[in-house]
From TrEMBL:
Superkingdom of the source species: Eukaryota
Organism, scientific name: Rhinopithecus roxellana (Golden snub-nosed monkey)
InterPro entries: FOP_dimerisation-dom_N (IPR018993), LisH (IPR006594)
Protein family per UniProt: Belongs to the CEP43 family.
Stretches assigned to the FGFR1 oncogene partner (FOP) N-terminal dimerisation domain: 49-75
Keywords assigned by UniProt, alphabetized: Cell projection, Cilium biogenesis/degradation, Cytoplasm, Cytoskeleton
Name of protein: Centrosomal protein 20
């Protein structure tokens, strides 16, 4: 018969391999930050420059496969709860496009970012 420690280790390993453990940790972090966020202090309006910076950070995280970190970032930028939580607003679905803050839920088009930043893309490896 397996010990409790062995069962815990197998369960943790299985959840890590399926990617569930990282997702759960990201959701917990986002919920903790949302609980600590002071709703009485309004956020500043989202400037064009900050929108581009946020998108660059999001692209960096997604390019490097930090998908759980990216999901926490987007939840914080959009002032939302993550999908699946009891307080996730229906208006924040990907169909909605943007949130109250103006940050798009769906990433901006890469060509748009290149144009706005006056950058160029290396055709060999799709790097900017």
């Amino acid at each position: 018969m397996a010990t409790v420690a062995e069962l815990k280790a197998v369960l943790k390993d299985t959840l890590e391999k399926k990617g569930v453990l990282g997702h759960l940790k990201a959701r917990i972090r986002a919920e903790v930050f949302n609980a600590l966020d002071d709703d009485r202090e309004p956020r500043p309006s989202l400037s064009h420059e900050n929108l581009l910076i946020n998108e660059l950070i999001r692209e960096y995280l997604e390019f490097n496969k930090y998908k759980y970190t990216a999901s926490v970032l987007i939840a914080a930028l959009c002032n939302l709860r993550l999908p699946g939580s009891s307080s996730f607003p229906a208006s924040a679905s990907k169909v909605a496009g943007t949130t109250e803050s103006g940050q798009p839920v769906v990433p901006l088009d890469r060509q748009f970012l290149i144009h706005e930043l006056n950058a160029f893309e290396e055709s060999k490896d799709n790097t900017i």
